[in-house]
Amino acid sequence: MSNENKGVDAEIVRKIARLSRLHVDEDRLAPLADELNGILSWIEMLGEVDVKGVEPMTSAVAIDAPLRADVVTDGGVRDKVLANAPKTEAGYFVVPRSVE
Amino acid sequence: MSDLTQLTLEAALAGLKSKDFSSVEITKAHIEACEKGAKLNAFITTDYDNALKSAEASDARLAKGEGGNLEGAPLGMKDLFCTENVRTTAGSKILGDFKPQYESTISAQMKSDGMVMLGKLNLDEFAMGSANETSHFGSVINPWKAEDGIDLVPGGSSGGSATAVAANMCLGATATDTGGSIRQPASFTGTTGIKPTYGRCSRWGVVAFASSLDQAGPITRTVKDAAIMLQSMAGYDVKDSTSLNVAVPDFAAACDNGVKGLRIGIPKEYTMDGMPAEIETLWQQGIKWLQDAGAEIVNVSLPHTKYALPAYYIVAPAEASSNLARYDGMRYGNRVDGENLYDTYERSRAEGFGEEVRRRIMIGTYVLSAGYYDAYYLQAQKVRTRIAEDFNAAWEKCDALLTPTCPSAAFAVGRKIDDPVTMYLNDIFTVTANLAGLPAMSVPVSLDKDGLPLGLQIIGRALDEETVFAASAALEKAANFTAKPKKWWA
After folding, report:
1. What's the pLDDT tens digit per position in B317-340?
2. Which of B27, B284, B480, B483 sits in a 20 to 30 Å window from B102, CA-based?
3. What is the 3-state secondary structure (H, E, C) of B147-170?
4. Smallest Cβ distance to B386: which of A24, A49, A65?
5. Bridge pairing between strands B192-195 and B440-447
6. Do A38 and B420 touch (CB under 8 A)?
7. How far, in Å, CA of A55 to CA of A50, rounded?
8. Residue A23, domain extent
9. Is B135 considered catalytic here?
10. Cβ separation of B362 and A17 shorter than 8 Å?
């Protein structure tokens, strides 16, 4: 774990919030930074573990990634797909304008 | 007819089969118990009309001498399992009135085995919590109380499942366990719960939290009941690429295997500062019980134990931040209109997710972000390998491990915790089994000085649930835990 890591500040929290697509009010940025630093300083202890030559764990029980035939197995259920949408029209999802 | 809600699942199934009572009768008895227990807030959504219809259909099958492994038994479903046309919330506001158009593999298997589903059980939001206090639908109350009468938490995240089973509102309930969410609530409520080997149960249709750790299992009142339920829940599923294509053994039969000649490991690292002395005493008692039942006790070391929780709090939020990216308010769930598309995303998610979920998404996003991935996520996954290696070394010397389930008994609802890390410590003894993907079970064994239940945990080798059931059944028999909470809520 990097020793030079000084934790997060309000500016970094703003960036993380943006990446997370979470709205955070301006006055919450600094308190959130404190909270996150509390957690981050605790997980820093992982840096002590000697992991030289250790492979990262990817699966608890070793299995081969299964393959299946590349065929359509589902579909034709448009109304089911749309059933829980906040807004639909004429069989489509209605979303906010994304290209100005 | 005695109170049908007092029966074990095993006894209820036998009674149904021999027509001592009907599924409609036992279902009605449980619906009444659920209504009387409403203040425990165990259910988010009840589905009594369909439950009674299922019960009638079960009775018709039973009358013909037919029926599956769970035929006619009223059970509860954690509200993390998608159930066709029955609202599924994951304990969150963000899903709104989401009604899945499909059934999770586990609930589908249970239905085809004859389950009568009473409803959807409360949980921490997206299963993130250890007290069931992060649910958008309010805290669940533990049926157990100390002398002072203060409301206690049932643990979490499967708090609704644990409370419903402990309060005799259902014969058993499904639950899920990412860091201890089956075993810790089981310990807090005097119930039994097993998290099977990762991949034993399909995750298809279960709302995802941390995909490499999430595993479903049952919470019940006895070890045998857990075996019966797991039999219906387990099995290979082509729709979950991490589900294991292996035969499912007869779990109930394994409960009678005994522990004679079994080597039980005692990991010296499973003791922590500030742990109540009674938990240490209880652990010693457990050792004695298994020894008296014929097991050989061996001391083992799991040197990386203390790194399990911090590794978990990197891996789980990282995977959660990725899994929860899908909640964007576009295709399902709640949308909060903003000034533009990004603002709509950000406001929908900020208003839809609770504080703990937002915190974990941000931690996860941070540890996966450019420049930090190697330092945090990759390091944590390597530490996880070290933890798995510790267990593999222990299996050279023993067949299963005995540990406490939790460092404390249930605590008060609303207990002020300023530091999230303090809350995370609840999972200190349970989280290792998730990181290593091992089966682990909590068995209620005694009451503490305040009259609150405490559990012990058996951890087994991957895919060796049979030994976990055998050792757990031996513990259960020796402990003879028969205490019940006083029925103050009815």
Report:
1. 999 999 999 999 999 999 999 999
2. B27
3. CCCCCECCCCCCHHHHHHHHCCCC
4. A49
5. antiparallel
6. yes
7. 12
8. 1-50
9. no
10. yes
Q: Of the listed B58, B181, B243, B472, which one is catalytic?
A: B181
Specify if A42 maps to a domain.
yes
Strand partners, B126: none
d(CA B488, CA B490): 6
According to CATH, the superfamily of the domain at B7-247 is Amidase signature (AS) domain (3.90.1300.10)
* Structure confidence at residue A5 (pLDDT): 55
Q: What pLDDT is attached to residue A4?
A: 44
Nearest to B381 among A20, A56, A66 (CB): A56
Q: How many domains does chain A have?
A: 1
- Model confidence at A59: pLDDT above 80: no
**What is the domain partition of chain B in residue ranges?**
7-247
Task: Using CA coordinates, name the residue in chain B closest to A51.
Answer: B382
Helical axes A29-43 vs B355-368, angle rounded to 10°: 60
Q: What is the mean pLDDT of residues B370-378?
A: 91
Distance, CA of B443 to CA of B439 (rounded, Å):
13
- Interface contact flag, A8 B366, Cβ < 8 Å: yes
Give yes or no: B2 in active site: no
Is-contact B73 B111, C-beta < 8 A?
no
Q: What is the average pLDDT value for chain B, to the nearest integer?
A: 96
Contact B101 A42 (CB under 8 A): no
**What ipTM is given for this predicted complex?**
0.93
Question: Span B149-162, mean pLDDT?
Answer: 97
Q: Which residues contact B192 (CB under 8 A, 6 or more apart)?
A: B186, B219, B220, B221, B222, B223, B225, B226, B441, B442, B443, B444, B472, B476
The 10s digit of each residue's pLDDT in B265-318 is 999 999 877 788 999 999 999 999 999 999 999 999 999 999 999 999 999 999
Which two three-digit tokens encode residue B423? 């809350």
Residue B361 touches partner A, C-beta closer than 8 Å: yes
